[in-house]
Structure of Aspartate carbamoyltransferase:
Amino acid sequence: MVFGKRHILSMRDFSREEIDLILDRALELEPYAKGKRSDRLKGKILANLFFEPSTRTRISFETAMKRLGGEVLNLDSTESSSIAKGETLADTIRVISAYADIIVLRHPKEGSARLASEFSSVPLINGGDGAGHHPTQTLLDLYTIKRESRLDGISIALVGDLKYGRTVHSLSIALSFYGASIKLVSPPGLGMSETMKSDLMDLGAEISEHDSIQDVIGDIDVLYVTRIQKERFPTLSEYNKVAGSYRIDKKLLESAKDDLIIMHPLPRVGEIDPEVDGTKHACYFKQAFYGVPVRMALLTLLLEGDGDE
Ligand code: NCD
């Protein structure tokens, strides 16, 4: 299969076969994520363009690139760049794509990655576009599910802000390729959009909506918890109406399956009680680590092809 040089904008751009290829390669690269030496991407440059806060996505791309011998440029929208002078995204991308071999873009506007890709002469990876999509988070989420549970035919609850949360938008699309039963649990007003739900049904996903985590906790293999996306709310008072409306604690887990795994893209801001961290169910810190081998896999496929052309 030819993976090829291309932009990574949404999970809709992948076939199941391609996702499996990335996950298999991530497994091969795990030793390098843990520190084994490699110069596989020597001479290649990644540009991290982050116009919204990020810890894991930016740093794990940087770690993945550097542990494979590549180099990283970092740009943000603060005083030090021309973005502060009013340069358009299109011009920034045109210029940076002449300096770097690959670009990771995070931007507050939905659709910005697709727009930017039209001006990029090198592969552009969407590192999160507003409330839109976050495909590389999904690849590492799938890898975590594969490593810590199993991918086919799982029952998963997506909990929290399903309206503004980009990670759950991307993840639910990908899960539909693996025959998952997807249970949507959100506070009032933060449910998944009708468009998104009908897209998922068109993809053959089995989805159902529930009012509380208690209703589903005994039936699921994966509990995927998300943060309420405070920064996307029109007003602070709208946010305050739903803030703190759910919290995973040990009591809730008493009715969980023995092998339930709990995931969270992080950062968490109170959705998971720290007392859960020490339980066998907690997977979220491992999940954050898995971002490194998965991003290594993607970078090698985009920068050097899959060697099977
Ligand atoms: C997520 C994001 O930025 O969408 N974080 C991440 O990339 N790990 C989730 C969030 O911010 O809530």
In short: Residues 7-133+291-304 form a domain with the Rossmann fold fold (CATH 3.40.50.1370). Residues 284-304 form the longest helix (21 residues).
